[in-house]
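U., I forgot to send this yesterday:
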Amino acid sequence: MKIFRASIDVMPHDNLLDPQGKAVSNSMANLGLAEISGVRIGKHITLQVDAKDKQAAEAKVEEACKKLLANMVMEKYSFSVSEG
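Result:
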């Protein structure tokens, strides 16, 4: 078995309201950062996977995202896996 590291980003679907992102986006002008808009806030997750190869590690990460880490109704995810 090899150890792989996964880096996962979970974000709200583009067509859904992101209240936290909207609040931060609206606050940018108050901070003198009016040039910044369209803020979207999500989660970044890192984890370790023991697997025989990269393909098996990716399959486990995919399963974890679908079953636990992302709410598939409201969120989308992307990830990368590297040996480490």
